[in-house]
Specification:
about 675 residues; alpha+beta; 2 domains; seven-stranded antiparallel sheet; about 40% helix; globular; disordered N terminus; Beta-lactamase family protein; Beta-lactam-related; signal
Length: about 675
């Protein structure tokens, strides 16, 4: 599970580091704009293999890479396993499972929370049912679950396992209260997310969708999801130190690593994942090695899937018939992300909880797998960066890149397409019908053309800083990297979606959403100044009146403008307080902490009074003009009115006054 700006049980390594770095740079240019033939830039020098894939070499590389990094990054513990040619090449533990107790991480016995790596195990369970003919990949899942979910379009297991059911994101219930039992069915039927895209058309990572796939397993098998997986996946694969159970059973509870923000902080409680199939697995590095071997066709226990089914899981689940030109980029398999690099097929999945950060990758054609997990986020997101370093370093060391394919697109077309890509974007994986819709425009991804025919994307959740160049029509490769962008355009040739990841894509930020946050901010500044001027003005008026009385002057009577001025200030103060409460709401919700519904209603009430201030501001401006209070008063009233207008635009566009406060 993964929430764009917060704690997550997530997906790919690129996504993970993006949350730490929050940046993106895309596309950089080559060739003269007027050239008739393609003139690609020189390909980057490919990494050269510097090690042989043996236990001694991998252990030596890990010893040079991880211990110093976790110490300087203040990461409590790490665990790694590598498989190759049908055997566990190495399984390692680094740092401490319990900082206070000084317990070292043991790859054989220490359990880590793997976050969304769990989703591959869930997909494996689903595919067992497919293999036995008990479910079909292309049948409406309502036939299996009996859940009457409010979705406009039918959803299939193929959609759920490829993150294309069309659901928006949900933050509530992502991480439950410590020790509180989780009810999977209840989690699915209580406030389900809206279906905002037609299934199969738009990659948009969905924790809810994967959890629904897990519930299909529960409904069809007639046993709790956790029990089915334990009996049919984990135990047969020899994963005797792994479980989806929350809390952990007695035999495993004493062996789970503590999770920490940093190794200097106190540990956080055992995280209760609200939708277990999406991210509740706890496992050891050695058990995850056994899982990798099972998926590479070398089970250490019983076979959990046939060769044909394992192959099917790694193949693209959807094609151009629904994805359009996005099919030219990375595509989800059935549970697996396409993480191919260096000209080799690679599938994988990563995961993050509040404290744990993991990733698993398979190189099927090379019979190799790598699993890594950290038990702390570390200083300045050090675990995200180190995880990427391990994944990239392993690929560069043992499977170096082939020479890059030259561009087949002429320079003029590259420049034209780069200009078409320029603009502001938000992720398709986000909130669209709730007040958390502010998360998109609050951190837009900006694309700008550089060097004539490349594009640079600014920081944004879900996409790393990188430079891409167009190598095929509307297909862009990362310069000096392995990322791929595929662009889908509409009938008019306008950019509709930018696929940058198997389960994630970008869509252009609409004009309304683009101006919503700046409008809200501008309105807030004007109304804050209005609210501050109220007590300041009262003091000034009181001092002035005292002086006038002391001189024996006649104190002017109240004017018809006084009441609308006062009400305007009250409304301004209400708006400012409302936005402050909204800030608290967003911080709380996006950190997965519990939040009382009443707090959201208070934020809405104060904001509503602020929006109604527009009417009072009109009254005040009219009164100022009619009573001829002077150009300064009239101008001030006009500016305040504009402040209320800006507030109203932002509040309306960002759904701050929506009666539905689910999130």
């Amino acid at each position: 599970m993964e929430v764009p700006v917060v704690t997550q049980l997530s997906a790919t390594p690129r996504r993970r580091t993006a949350l730490a770095a929050l940046g993106v740079v895309v596309l950089t240019a080559l060739g003269a704009c007027g050239a008739a033939e393609p003139s690609p830039s020189p390909p980057p020098t490919p990494p050269v293999a510097t090690g042989e894939l043996t236990r001694a070499d991998v252990d030596g590389w890990l010893d040079r890479t991880i211990p110093a990094a976790i110490e300087t990054g203040r990461i409590a513990g790490a665990t790694v396993s590598v498989v190759h040619d049908g055997e566990i090449l190495t399984s390692r533990g680094f740092g401490e499972a319990d900082v206070a107790g000084g317990t070292a991480v043991d790859p054989e016995t220490t359990l880590f929370r793997v976050g969304s790596v769990s989703k591959v195990v869930t997909a494996t369970a689903v595919m067992q049912l497919v293999e036995r003919g008990e479910v079909d990949l292309d049948t409406d899942v309502e036939q299996y679950t009996g859940l009457d979910l409010p979705h406009e379009h039918p959803v299939t297991l193929r959609h759920l396992l490829s993150h294309t059911p069309g659901y928006e994101e949900r933050a509530a219930g992502l991480i439950g209260a410590p020790g509180v039992a989780v009810d999977l069915r209840q989690a699915l039927v209580e406030d389900p997310p809206a279906q905002v895209y037609e299934p199969g058309t738009t990659p948009a990572y969905s924790n809810y969708g994967n959890a629904l796939a897990g519930y299909v397993v529960e409904a069809v098998s007639g046993m709790p999801f956790e029990d089915y997986v334990d009996q049919n996946v984990l135990a047969p694969a020899g994963m005797t130190s792994s479980t989806f159970a929350q809390p952990l059973p007695d035999g495993l509870a004493a062996r789970v690593a503590q999770g920490y923000p940093t190794s200097d902080d106190a540990p956080i409680p055992f995280e209760m994942v609200g939708t277990p199939p999406a991210g509740a697995l706890s496992s050891t590095a050695t058990d995850m090695a056994r899982f990798m071997l099972a998926h590479l066709g070398h089970p250490t226990g019983e076979e959990i899937l046939s060769d044909a089914t394992r192959e099917l899981m790694r193949e693209p689940a959807l094609d151009a018939s629904t994805l359009g030109s996005l099919a030219s980029g990375p595509r989800m398999g059935l549970g697996w992300f396409d993480e191919s690099r260096h000209g080799r097929a690679v599938v994988g999945h990563g995961g993050d909880t509040t404290a744990f950060h993991s990733h698993l990758q398979l190189w099927p054609e090379d019979g190799t797998g790598l699993y890594v997990s950290f038990s702390s986020t570390g200083a300045d997101g050090a675990a995200h960066l180190l995880r990427e370093e391990v994944l990239d370093g392993f690929a560069d060391r043992y499977f170096p890149a082939e020479v890059a394919t030259p561009s087949t697109v002429d320079a003029a077309t590259r420049a034209e397409h780069a200009q078409a890509l320029a603009g502001r974007y938000e992720s398709t994986r986000g909130f669209h019908t709730t007040f958390l819709t502010v998360a998109g425009p609050l951190q837009p991804i900006t694309a700008e053309v550089v060097e004539g025919d490349r594009v640079r994307f600014s920081a944004g959740v879900g996409l790393l800083p990188a430079v891409y160049e167009e190598v095929e029509p509307w297909v862009f490769h990362e310069v000096d990297g392995h990322g791929v962008l595929a662009v889908r355009t509409d009938a008019e040739g306008e950019v509709e979606l930018v696929g940058f990841d198997s389960a994630m894509s970008l869509m252009p930020l609409t004009t309304g959403r683009a101006v919503a946050v700046p409008a809200l901010a501008a309105g807030a500044v004007v109304l804050l100044l209005t609210a501050i001027a109220w007590p300041v003005g009262a003091v000034v008026r009181r001092v002035r009146a005292r002086r006038e009385r002391a001189r024996g002057d006649v104190v002017p009577a109240r004017t018809p403008v006084r009441l609308p001025r006062t009400l305007t200030r009250v409304a301004a103060l209400s708006a400012v307080l409302g936005l402050l409460v909204w800030g608290y709401v967003l911080v709380t919700v996006l950190s997965t902490a519990p939040l009382a519904e009443a707090v959201i209603r208070v934020a809405q009430g104060l904001t509503a009074l602020g929006v109604l201030g527009f009417l009072v501001a009109v009254w005040r401006l009219t009164a100022e003009v009619r009573t001829r209070t002077g150009w300064f008063r009239v101008t001030t009233a006009a500016v305040v009115l504009l402040g209320f207008v800006a507030l109203s635009i932002g509040a309306n566009e960002l759904l701050l006054l929506s009666p539905d406060i689910t999130y």
